[in-house]
Amino acid sequence: MKTLKNYLFLFSLVLLVASCKSEPKGEKAATSEAAPVKEMSASKSFNVNTANTIINWSGSKIGGTHTGELKLKSGSVQVDGDKITGGKFTIDMSSLSNTDMDGEGAANLVGHLLSPDFFDVAKFPNATFEITKVTNLAGNPDANCMVYGNLTMKETTKQIGFKAKANVGPNGVNVSTGDFTIDRTDFGIKYGSSKLADVAKDKVISDKIGLKINLSAS
């Protein structure tokens, strides 16, 4: 009996460690209630190159991590001199793809993520992000600004803020981020969350969604 208890304890510990290791990378985006979008001065507006703009996502559960991509349907960036002053982007949720599997496994995962359990894409085909402010960031070689904006998924809007490296030139804008995370339950996406009392421990899906953005506009 003692041996069985020891085995069960070790098994539980392995599951816990596996769960922690598979958490999406990056610091959590600053998250608050939706903020007003102020009209800012802009000397130029650039349209997003949707073919060259990628949103990488990751999600995890006990035992592993899944990764994939999302594409923008449209978007624009407003600048004044060498500063970004605004922008609005429409994310095509039906473009969601999986990059760590192929065949039936990838199709089943994507189908589940598009279903009402998660993003309910038939009802909510788009998500949007609208910049509320951009502030300077010093002393970080990988980021020169903080980008804040209202993210709307399904029926919920929250302001999120994340570090980014923005390069503004006469012919366009490039913005890249490191890995960062948002909490899906902030947007009412609670399937498999540990916050639900009836979810078995070995079925828990992390509340964190990992994101990494590379955006080009010209």
Describe the protein in words.
The protein is mainly beta. It is 15% helix and 48% strand. The chain is built from two helices and twelve strands. It has an eight-stranded antiparallel β-barrel with strand order 4-5-6-7-8-9-10-12. Strand 7 (126-136) and strand 8 (145-153) form a beta hairpin. The longest helix is centred in the first third of the chain and has 20 residues, at 2-21.
Give the structure's gist in a few sentences.
The protein is mainly beta and 218 residues long.
Give the SSE map:
Blueprint: H1 2-21, E1 27-28, E2 30-33, E3 44-47, E4 54-61, E5 64-80, E6 83-98, H2 103-114, E7 126-136, E8 145-153, E9 156-169, E10 172-176, E11 180-183, E12 208-217
Parallel strand pairs: 1-11
Antiparallel strand pairs: 2-9, 3-5, 4-5, 4-12, 5-6, 6-7, 7-8, 8-9, 9-10, 10-12, 11-12
How many distinct domains?
1
Low-confidence stretches: 4-21
What is the fold-level CATH name, i.e. the topology? Lipocalin
The proportion of residues forming helix, as a percent range, comes to: 10-25%
Number of strands: 12
Strand percentage, roughly? over 45%
Q: Round the mean pLDDT to the nearest integer and report it.
A: 89
Give me the number of helical elements.
2
State Rg: 19 Å
Name given to the CATH architecture = Beta Barrel
Order of strands in the sheet with most strands: 4-5-6-7-8-9-10-12
**Sheet with most strands:** 8 strands, antiparallel, barrel
Q: What is the CA–CA distance across the termini?
A: 68 Å
What is the CATH homology-level superfamily?
A: Lipid/polyisoprenoid-binding, YceI-like
Query: Overall 3D geometry?
Result: globular
The ordered H/E elements are HEEEEEEHEEEEEE
Text of the CATH class: Mainly Beta
Structural class: mainly beta
